[in-house]
Design goal:
This protein is α/β, with parallel strands linked by helices. The longest helix has 29 residues. It is globular, with a radius of gyration of 23 Å. It has a 7-stranded mixed beta sheet, sandwiched between helices. α8 crosses α12 and α9 packs antiparallel against α10. The chain is built from 13 helices and 7 strands.
Length: 290
């Protein structure tokens, strides 16, 4: 099957390679990558037979919005646009309506798998109308491992499910981080985290792929000395918390894991300074000075 892949970063390049390995005819465009088949979106269109399928694998936000509207201008009726980035599901619902008014299909695909997807497959959470999703199933099934693809609902559902997936990931990562930090800080025992992570991956109730990655990381650098404790977020955790508030769903673990990421980016917390100053004022507690 033919597909136009837009974006050849870590995910897009791996997906392109996996699809080609499965016999699909993949044409590519990325203005920042030399190894592409097209030098513009217009040229990419000319390389595809109608009805065409364009897959955006680019960062959520302005670049996705701009690329989507450029595709709307050049796509023909019956063509499909797939957004495989981590877009907000409300944006995806809006883009579906905009595309439908022009007779163009819009499909939102939440993609999980990271840099390992090329080897083990990408988990795909797809939202959209039955007809374009069904037509694109050969692509979805080639990208995914067995049982790793599902059409989860109408427009926006794919990115909604991926949003919550990433919110859960925030909580899982924070729980592992706190547990290993407690082990690392022990005054009673000098523990080796790599062997413990390996142990937990055999029969333990906390075994998981994430913990396998922890084992891998500790095997390279037990103290993680070469890594700064600065943790970014790409938006989905925030959106998950916002949606939980809208739905009156208590989500303390995901919320606190998001706040922990924000704290990781501060060289020094002004809020902590305020607490120290107040403790000195009301209780005469000592403060540390620079």
């Amino acid at each position: 099957m033919q597909l136009g892949m837009i974006g050849l970063g870590r995910m897009g390049s791996g997906m392109t390679e996996r699809l080609r390995e499965h016999g699909h005819d993949i044409h590519t465009y990325d203005p920042n990558v030399g190894a592409r088949t097209a030098d513009s979106l217009g040229q990419l269109k000319e390389q595809l037979d109608a009805p065409r399928a364009f897959w955006m694998m680019i960062p959520a936000g302005e670049i996705t919005e701009q690329t989507f509207h450029e595709l709307l201008e050049i796509a023909d009726e019956g063509d499909s646009i797939v957004d495989g980035g981590n877009s907000n599901f409300r944006d995806s619902k809006r883009r579906y309506v905009e595309a439908k008014h022009r007779g163009i299909h819009f499909v939102d695909a939440g993609v999980s798998g990271g840099v390992w997807g090329l080897e083990v497959g990408f988990c795909l959470m797809v939202g959209g109308d039955d007809e374009p999703v069904g037509r694109l199933e050969p692509i979805f099934k080639a990208l995914a491992p067995e049982q790793g693809y599902a059409h989860v609902g109408p427009s926006g559902a794919g990115h909604f499910v991926k949003m919550v997936h990433n919110g859960i990931e925030y909580g899982l990562l924070q729980a592992y981080a706190e547990g290993y930090e407690i082990l690392h800080a022990s005054k009673d025992f000098k523990l080796q985290l790599g062997p413990i992570a390996k142990l937990w991956n055999h029969g333990s109730v906390v075994r998981s792929w994430l913990n396998e990655l922890a084992e891998r990381a500790f095997s390279r650098d037990e103290q993680l000395a070469g890594i700064r404790g600065y943790v970014e977020d790409s938006g989905e955790g925030r959106w998950t918390v916002e949606e939980a508030l809208r739905l009156d769903v208590p989500a303390p673990v995901i919320t606190l894991s998001l706040l922990a990421r924000l704290r990781s980016r501060q060289e020094e917390s002004f809020g902590a300074k305020v607490i120290a100053a107040l403790r000195r004022e009301f209780g005469g507690h000592a403060v540390q000075t620079k």
